[in-house]
Amino acid sequence: MTRSGPEPLSELLIRCARTLRRRSFHLLGPWGLSPHQARALRVIAEREPVRLSDLADALHIAPRSATEVVDGLELLGLTERVRGERDRRATYARLTEPGARTNDEIEAARAADARDFFAALDDDERAALTRILGKLT
């Protein structure tokens, strides 16, 4: 393809991902969270209580990094650490009441933002894009 021709598909996809990431940073501003922290909050909400090593696996990060993420969320009062019921040596993270409320607010804001972002596509185009991206991933 020439410089004056259409952008390669991979470049368009990268631009789209960057746009979504910028929107995510902007969307999370009111809560003072990074996209990474918000993702951790979502995983904890889905699996709580979640063992820190399982959180690390879900986020594809090192266990030490998961500890740091939970430390940050704990400082904000959004999560707390608890000991395992069966294995008292294991440490789990769970949401606090403010953490659950924050997660619900963020999920609602994300859903609204996604509706806005994908509004340029009709139902058939959204379904096709979902199918295609699912196939690629």
How would you describe this protein?
- This protein has 137 residues and is mainly alpha-helical.
- The protein has a single domain (32-136), classed as Orthogonal Bundle (Arc Repressor Mutant, subunit A), CATH 1.10.10.10.
- The chain has six helices and three strands.
- The chain has helices at 9-28, 35-47, 52-59, 63-75, 97-117, 123-136, and strands spanning 50-51, 79-83, 91-95.
- The chain starts with 8 loop residues before the first helix and ends with a helix.
- The model has no long low-confidence stretch (mean pLDDT 92).
Question: How many structurally independent domains?
Answer: 1
C-alpha geometry: elongated
Calculate the terminal CA-CA distance, rounded to whole Å: 25 Å
> Class, according to the CATH hierarchy?
Mainly Alpha
Helix content: 55-70%
* CATH topology group: Arc Repressor Mutant, subunit A
CA-atom Rg in angstroms = 18 Å
Mean pLDDT: 92
